[in-house]
Specification:
Elements: H1 2-26, H2 30-51, H3 56-81, H4 85-107, H5 115-120, H6 123-126, E1 131-133, E2 136-138, H7 141-159, H8 161-169, H9 171-176, H10 181-203, H11 205-222, H12 226-251, H13 255-276
Antiparallel strand pairs: 1-2
Helix pairs in contact: 1-2, 1-7, 1-8, 1-10, 1-11, 1-12, 2-3, 2-4, 2-10, 2-11, 3-4, 3-10, 7-10, 10-11, 11-12, 11-13, 12-13
């Protein structure tokens, strides 16, 4: 049962991350996922400093506030200062991440989070985290949180599917026909931040970044039809979890790291396979 919880937690992290990552990749804004994942840390520490607790909703609120601030500040740097978009993105996210790491170091044992948790996550430990509803103990808590976020984001994507596709593939036309781009970007920022906060506590920043980018990028090598691409993203997530777990267990290495290793190997395999395929 313990192994099953680890596999389910890992799979839900990958599904959540790759779902939002697919549309980030299609918009050619993969670095936005990287920026949000890094800035999330500052939001979490900020929320802890205000509430003196590690409640999930408080951390979510702090991270969303920081993500929206980052969005507006990047727009300010690009529109008013003349900084290139990619430079403004990296400048803002790395600064916020550095501040978060320094702040954690200053807080010491006062917060149940350290630099190691940020990098490697707490996948095994999160299995034992539980909560009580009407006298029933349920665990792992993160499983239910991640499942709820997956259903919520999946529902939003399904409900406004045509709008998301239009924003991802032709944002200029979306602007012409009157779609409020900024509001949809803010909603996407909130969705991505929610995924990042819930996921990075479990597996750390590296797997969150890898899960947002590797599965959709790999699937894009073998499919250019969006519904098929999403199906193959799900399949790649499953392969990364199963093979990554067995590799990590066999060699006694980081499970999130081994899953990313499998994802990288899949990308290279399909990359060279497509190059060898005659056009």
């Amino acid at each position: 049962m313990f192994t099953l919880w680890i596999l389910l937690l890992s799979l839900l992290v990958l599904l959540n991350c790759s779902l939002v990552g697919t549309f980030l990749m299609l918009r050619k804004e993969a670095m936005v996922g990287d920026a949000i994942a890094h800035s999330t840390l500052f939001g979490i520490v900020l929320a802890f400093s205000i509430t003196r607790g590690t409640h999930f909703l408080a951390m979510m609120g702090g991270s969303i506030a920081v993500a929206l601030f980052m969005l507006f500040f990047i727009r300010f740097l690009v529109d008013r200062v003349g900084v290139r978009y990619d430079a403004a993105l990296v400048l803002t996210s790395t600064t916020l991440f550095s501040l978060g790491v320094i702040w954690i170091g200053q807080l010491g044992d006062a917060i149940d989070l350290d630099q190691g948790c940020v990098l490697y996550g707490q996948l095994v430990a999160r299995v034992f985290d539980q909560f009580c509803i009407n006298g029933y103990l349920l665990r792992p808590k993160d499983l239910y949180v991640l499942l709820f976020i997956l259903l919520l984001n999946g529902g939003l994507l399904a409900r406004f599917y045509s709008t998301w596709v239009l924003l991802a593939l032709d944002s200029n036309y979306a602007t012409i026909i009157g779609i409020p781009i900024l509001r949809w970007e803010q909603l996407w920022m909130v969705m991505t931040t929610t995924v990042a906060v819930a996921s990075f506590r479990v597996v750390g920043v590296p797997l969150v970044l890898g899960a947002m980018i590797l599965p959709p990028t790999t699937a894009y090598l073998i499919s250019n039809h969006l519904p098929t691409l999403i199906q193959r993203v799900i399949f790649i997530d499953l392969v990364m979890v199963l093979y990554g777990y067995h590799i990590g267990y066999a060699f006694n290495i980081s499970l999130p790291g081994s899953m990313i290793l499998v994802g990288g190997a899949l990308f290279l395999f399909f990359f060279f396979k497509e190059k060898k395929t005659p056009s």
